[in-house]
Specification:
Residues 42-336 form the Enoyl reductase (ER) domain. The chain has helices spanning 73-80, 155-159, 162-174, 191-202, 218-223, 254-257, 288-293, 295-299, 318-325; strands at residues 32-37, 48-53, 61-71, 95-103, 115-119, 138-142, 146-148, 182-186, 208-213, 228-231, 246-249, 267-269, 280-281, 307-313, 333-336, 340-342, 345-346. By secondary structure, the chain is an alpha/beta fold. The protein is globular. Bound molecules: NADP nicotinamide-adenine-dinucleotide phosphate.
């Protein structure tokens, strides 16, 4: 069933999606949406599904009908503890793919109807994080944070990419990684690891890509393009023969993993704080441009979105989806789809 057009959005407050101001329309004309939110920090059970006002875009923002969203560890870390400036209640979620429904007057790159994807949350931005995340039927985002969804990539696949791809790219940039160098990726099977392995091989043309994972995922990580896979349940870092031009640690084990780095070679740790003072922390840059740059590799299928075989959860099963990612064992990404069409029903994306 096709999604209805929810464009008749009247003046709802945006900034504070939870506070309405300057309303010029009658109460009964307010357009509401389904959204997951939490009003207190804690385990996944603090999440509630409720009705919230649909936001309207600021002059520099797009209003998006979300078709799919992906979860990231930061979504549950922020829910468990007050790690970053953000007002409660919070609608979690950074990654999404969807359709532009409306735009602010200063938006120049996108039109209503465009299929776009991106990470809507910038942790490097000044001020507070957005209260309205992607686990809602509608969200708002600055146009420079999103890109046109590549052809041949589904909404679910597109939603799985932004945070992981932006993080993977940033690590190689921070290390000043050069074509033909070798890289040892600690944790090749997770959201970031699966992209780091593929980008190392395809975009950065590494001479040797080795990644670690547990026994059941060795063939999977090889299938992503790793030249060698180390089963960490059987082999310790000290037993790895080669030394590498870069150690790219996605699991926060730099206190141990540095031993596979060549002398003076960079050690990148994407977790905070790194467990080794020698390691450089690398934090993602949120930008639609990074996604746009990778578009050819995504459209020709050389770089693939990786969704965990059990990792597609209906919008109504968001708590189960968090339960799954919080095991720390996801293979690639955990994605939420389909989303509701409107407050009364669901539709396929
Ligand atoms: N700095 C940033 O900007 C940034 C951005 C994104 C994420 N992060 C952080 O980076 C970390 C990874 O994120 P993610 O999205 O990739 O997480 P994820 O998808 O949840 O990672 C799950 C994967 O980690 C692997 N893993 C767990 N322990 C391992 C070990 N000892 N050795 C090798 N692999 C292991 C698991 O494989 P096995 O089952 O085979 O162990 C699983 O496939 C998180 O802490 C996240 O918060 C930082």
């Amino acid at each position: 069933m096709p999604c209805g057009n929810p464009l008749e959005i009247d003046a709802l407050d945006l900034n504070g999606v939870f506070k309405r101001r300057n309303l010029t329309i009658a109460e009964n004309r307010l357009k509401m949406q389904k959204a997951w939110f939490y009003e207190e920090y804690g385990p996944k059970e603090v999440l509630k599904l409720g009705d919230l006002p649909i936001p309207s875009p600021q002059p520099y923002q797009l209003l998006i009908k979300v078709h799919a969203a992906a979860l990231n560890p930061i979504d549950f870390k922020l829910r468990q503890n007050p790690l970053a400036p953000i007002d409660l209640p919070v609608v979690p979620g950074c990654d999404m793919a969807g359709v532009v429904i409306a735009k602010g007057d200063d938006v120049s790159k996108f039109q209503a109807g465009d299929e776009i994807y991106g990470n809507i949350q910038s942790f490097k931005a000044e001020g507070k994080l957005k209260q309205l995340g992607t686990l809602a039927e509608f969200t708002v985002v600055e146009e420079n944070m999103v890109a046109i969804k590549p052809k041949n990539v589904s909404f679910e696949e597109a939603a799985s990419l932004p945070v992981a791809v932006q993080t993977a790219v940033e690590g190689f940039k921070t290390a000043d990684f050069k074509q033909g160098q070798s890289v040892f990726i600690v944790g090749g099977a997770g959201g970031v690891g699966t992209l780091a392995v593929q980008l190392a091989k395809i975009v950065y043309k590494a001479s040797l890509v080795t990644a670690t994972t547990s026994s059941g995922k060795v063939e999977f990580v090889k299938s992503l393009g790793a030249d060698k896979v180390v089963d960490y349940t059987k082999t310790r870092y000290e037993e790895v023969e080669e030394k590498y031009d870069l150690v790219y640690d996605t699991i926060g084990d730099s206190r141990n993993s540095y031993v596979v780095a060549k002398e003076d070679a960079p050690v990148i740790d994407i977790t905070w704080p790194p467990s080794n003072p020698r390691a450089k922390h690398s934090s993602l840059t949120v930008s639609g441009e990074i996604l746009e740059t990778l578009r050819p590799c995504l459209e020709n299928g050389k770089v693939k979105a990786v969704i965990d075989p059990s990792g597609l959860f209906h919008f109504s099963d968001v708590i189960k989806a968090f339960g799954y990612i919080e095991t720390g064992r996801a293979r690639g990404k955990v994605v939420v789809s389909p989303f509701p069409c409107n407050a009364n029903g669901y539709c396929n994306t």
